[in-house]
Amino acid sequence: QVQLVESGGGLVQAGGSLRLSCAASRSIFTISDMGWYRQAPGKQRELVAAFTSSGRTNYADSVKGRFTASRDNAKNTVFLQINSLKPEDTAVYYCNAVVKAGPSDINYWGQGTQVTVSS
């Protein structure tokens, strides 16, 4: 099992920055995949950034050049640096972890952290 705890959200003006953190309860080396998602009111949850097994990080087109995902393996923590925030970035941001359990994958989610961008 994996517990994920996000932090770092808040209210910020357009153009500002935030750094989100997601602390995992176990070594992230034992987690197959990790990523950041967000869900705006009335919209489906969407992928923002995903760490790949090759070491690269994939980003949604809408955040490329503004968002940077990183990880601190020693602290079992992943981060999402969000710059040049726009009102349309307002959403609850979730950390996701996928653990392989035999033939299937198990998805774990944090509780989410609210990001609100004012214009």
Structural commentary:
β4 (33-39) and β5 form a beta hairpin. Helix content is 0%, strand content 55%. It is an all-beta fold.
List the helices and strands and how they pair.
Elements lengths: L3 E4 L2 E4 L4 E7 L8 E7 L6 E6 L5 E3 L7 E6 L4 E6 L8 E11 L2 E6 L3 E6 L1
Parallel strand pairs: 2-11
Antiparallel strand pairs: 1-3, 3-8, 4-5, 4-9, 5-6, 7-8, 9-10, 9-11
Give the N-to-C terminal Cα separation.
Answer: 40 Å
Largest sheet: 7 strands, mixed
The helical percent reads: under 10%
Low-confidence stretches: none
Number of helices: 0
Name the average pLDDT: 94
Order of helices and strands: EEEEEEEEEEE
Please report which band the strand proportion falls in: under 5%, 5-15%, 15-25%, 25-35%, 35-45% or over 45%.
over 45%
Q: C-alpha Rg, in Å?
A: 14 Å
Given helix and strand content, the structural type is mainly beta
Got a strand count? 11
| Shape category | globular
